[in-house]
Amino acid sequence: MASTHAICFFIPSYIHERLASSNLDEKTKAASAAALEVARKVREHRKEHTALLAAAAGKPKPKTPTEGNGARYRQIYDCGNKDTLPGKSVWKEGDTATHDRQVNNCYRALGTTYDFYKTVFGRNSLDDKGLPLKGNVHYKPDPSEAFGYDNAFWDGAQMVFGDGDGVAFDYFTDSLDVCAHELTHGFVEHSSPLKYWGQSGALNESMADVFACMVEHWFKNQKTSEANWIIGENIFTVEFKGDGLRKFNKDKAFENDENLGTDPQPKHMRDYVEGDADEGGVHINSGIPNHAFYLAATALGGYSWEKVGKVWYQTMVSGKIPRDCTFERFAETTVEVAGEVFPSDKAVGDAVKKAWEDVGVLA
């Protein structure tokens, strides 16, 4: 059963499947196989997880001293290469930096993502009510293994980062876009909770990619013409010859890679991938709405978050997006919202509409 409270992994299963059957060393292939096993167990228990979250939703939760008062609150936990969540608390808001780079990276990335939503959209954390941001580093499902965990995920309440195996993947906390992507799944849950399956699931993944890109653009003060529009460019080691995990422009993120093959993401509806794999293609078909955002943002120029980003954000908080939203429904709503948000700037709505037409979603 598809869930709005889905546990969302940064690295999709099809990547791990390719690595597990690649020509890489046995330890690296075992690391990918282990990551697939974690994903399998999550799928098996997703219904139970959703029921637990639903039950917990009606119960009062203990609050941190700053929760709900408009202040940023972060807390980082060290799993100590074990699978216990959360791990041991090692840095909370206001503490001094630690000597652990992964702890420090996680803390700062959570802060940058919070600051983006607050500064750009006036949103107080993921739920707009001061939800504390929690991150777990050095997570390892099997402490007996010699390799680190090859993924990062949002579990509906907190971020979890693996250290990578060192051959296929590096530390996941080294990438701001990984953190921003996974935290945005939390924003989706608290704005327009999109079912994690098929087109609505691909929109869920696309929102995570789109806002992660904007967080990086904002942090680096890059205009649309200056940004590289790549997701996951820093998670791979030197063994990887591609540009990253996903790209927003028309190009493939990787092609004919010895171990990963070719990026399967389509950029037009004529190439839409059908099937049940990857939760109905959530990480694959998200390439279509990603490309639409890119086309609209680059057509208008300037900063991605100022116009098209604002349209996407207002669309997500509009109350007009159903749980099982299709690409077409989302596209029509963005065009409508563009007219509402920028009534005196017709160019915004025109650019948004043309972008969706160019990817074959609107006629």
From TrEMBL:
Residues 193-361 form the Peptidase M4 C-terminal domain. InterPro entries: Metalloprotease_M4, Peptidase_M4, Peptidase_M4/M1_CTD_sf, Peptidase_M4_C_domain, Peptidase_M4_domain. Keywords: Hydrolase, Metal-binding, Metalloprotease, Protease, Zinc. The keyword Hydrolase applies. One of its GO terms (molecular function) is metalloendopeptidase activity. GO terms for biological process: proteolysis. Belongs to the peptidase M4 family. This is Peptidase M4 thermolysin. It comes from Clohesyomyces aquaticus.
